[in-house]
């Protein structure tokens, strides 16, 4: 059985790359809904419909477990999918919780009551839809008290990355960090709450300054998936990955190859 990894576009490759390294025998199917990216400017209902369709495509490709390697889909659609759509023999997991567990010094699945943690001032950088959902603050409130979160919606960054325009992406990152700092001058930590943003991690770190700890999801999600698979040990396979896109396979393959610095060949979904 393969594990499905879904993103609106290429950002989920940052998660896929980390989980492939951590779990070299597991088979993956990566699906990029490039025809409909970016999701971050869409309504919650629209994101729900697109995420359900993409997840069904991964079920049809033989995946019983699907990771939404997209914060926007995790924030706007995951809870509703789990409550009313996911069939009993399938699992769909998001990328928010592992990050919040790491930030709040918790082990995987520790559901004890919220408590004080070391971090007090946290900057969240995410897409407009993720910020509007307030899902991050909701999940954080289940686990920690006394943490002040300032969220910055980073319009335009995902489009620039999908277009391969890193000069524009960097300029936008600088301006979003400036806007955040006007609201919270001294964050102790910053969350890159979009799987595209690790591709711009250096730009975020430089604009924020070296004293700010930048949390990004890829390794945290890889660790928690490894933990999950150890408890569900029927996943070892050939270690192969299939790449599917709803967009133009040639264009998406060329961007993906540029991002991961190795040949990636997408096929039509
Ligand atoms: N990588 C998605 C995320 O983590 C990008 C969202 C988008 O398509 O705008 O939120």
UniProtKB/TrEMBL annotation:
Active site positions, chain numbering: 70 (proton donor/acceptor), 194 (proton donor/acceptor)
Biological or metabolic pathway of the protein: Cell wall biogenesis; peptidoglycan biosynthesis
Pfam families with a match to the protein in the record: Asp_Glu_race
Enzyme class: isomerase
Keyword field: Cell shape, Cell wall biogenesis/degradation, Isomerase, Peptidoglycan synthesis
Superkingdom, natural source: Bacteria
Coiled coil (UniProt feature): none
Gene Ontology MF term list: glutamate racemase activity
GO terms, biological process: cell wall organization; peptidoglycan biosynthetic process; regulation of cell shape
Binding site for substrate: 7-8, 39-40, 71-72, 195-196
Reactions the enzyme catalyzes: L-glutamate = D-glutamate
EC code: 5.1.1.3
Gene3D superfamilies given in the database record: 3.40.50.1860
Function: Provides the (R)-glutamate required for cell wall biosynthesis.
Entries under PANTHER family matching the protein: GLUTAMATE RACEMASE (PTHR21198:SF2)
Sequence similarity: Belongs to the aspartate/glutamate racemases family.
Record's protein name: Glutamate racemase
Native organism: Sulfitobacter aestuariivivens
Organism classification: Bacteria, Pseudomonadati, Pseudomonadota, Alphaproteobacteria, Rhodobacterales
Gene: murI
